[in-house]
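Obj.: predict assembly geometry.
Materials: sequence records (below).
Method: joint structure prediction, all chains together.
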Amino acid sequence: MSRVLDLLGRETALAWGRGGGAMVSGGFYLGMAVLLPLAIGPEPGRLSAIAPGAAWTALALSTLLGLDRLFERDFEDGALDLLALSALPLELTCAIKCLGQWLATGLPLAVLSPLAVIALGGPIALSPLVLACALIGGLAYSFLGGIGAALSLGARRGGLLTAVIVLPLFVPPVIFGGGALDALAGHLPWRAGLALLGAYTAAAIALGPLAMAAACRNALS
Amino acid sequence: MIPAPAFLSNPERFMAFSRWAAPLFGLLAAGLGLAGLWLGFSAPEDYQQGDTIRVMFIHVPAAWLSLFAYMCLGGASFLSLIFRHALADAAARAAAPLGAAFTALALITGSLWGRPMWGTWWVWDARLTSVLVLFLFYLAYLALRSAMDDDAKSARAGAILALVGLVNLPIVHWSVTWWNSLHQGSSVFAKGGPAMPAVYLTPLLLMGLAYIAAFGSLWLVRIRGEVWRRRAEAAQARLAGA
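Observations (raw structure tokens):
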């Protein structure tokens, strides 16, 4: 257990420090929230209609930022070889890496997300659900992103490749989270969206590490 | 294991089989396609859609094949991942661009058909959206394969991605349907008649068979090309070593 916690601490610290970590994704997220009204126009009516969806999409894109270095750094300096040799199964190690990534970037982004929705003119009553969706969805993004990051190990232009691999996988969580937010904003039942988002996240946490570990073993072989 | 892949898993036997099977399938595709097109274009105009009904004979089989090719890609990837068989990987690698091409064809012809019928090139309908995401899956697979130089590593990474996509595709399709029913229902997809009359069904099925034969032929040709490429690389490596 202490091994798991040590590794989690290491991964979180690395994700936090890696190329600015939370600062960079948070800055990117806010930057997108600023660019949207500039592109669409400042009329409150128009903006508030798209605020939840726009903030949700921006969140999905912002989580892509730190992903490219999730495995690459350890792969380059040989730490991944050591991690693969450790007593922990590689699947668990991969899951912990994703969890650390989520703690360092997903969590701060989730805290920022109600702010972005309100700044875009969305209703304040939406904030708790935005936070919940961002917390749960962020986990799914981090675990799906880990698959992309592990698969593009050893490839040319791995960072860009990660984004291309991961974006189609983001479709269901984007739909479920956006659906829940949309439904609440339209005074419709929203629980189904949140429940489906949770189910998808659970599946990503359960199955993602298998794919990640297989991809890491392949890159190390 | 399934008998056909077991028989064909031997590269020598595969090359001997595909040498005549590929042109045979090609001929079959041409014959069936000609018959299907002939019947399709001589069929009477639809009472609602007029002449544009004929787009269906090109469009619908392409949509079938876009999924069928992904099944082939997934199946070959599975075999390649489990048995580490080079030929299975060649089959997966060869199926991907074909699947992408059929998906693109389905999207393009669908768009051309949608313009006169629904008055728009594109609607964010559930089916259209999930085919578009399928196209993105193909692109991701192709991007991953082309970004890796090492054949063995690229094979396994590609196979893992193809299987991840195989698990995800039903979820994507279902989620997009859910998303679509959450928004206002689309009226353009109201079902027309109860069943298709035989004048349309026969050419459609013929075209479907023609597309499958064409896919089979092109797939075999591409696998052969992949085998030859690997043989050439192996020969080059031998020469460089000698």
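Conclusions so far: The radius of gyration of chain B is 20 Å.
To do: check interface contacts against the pulldown list.
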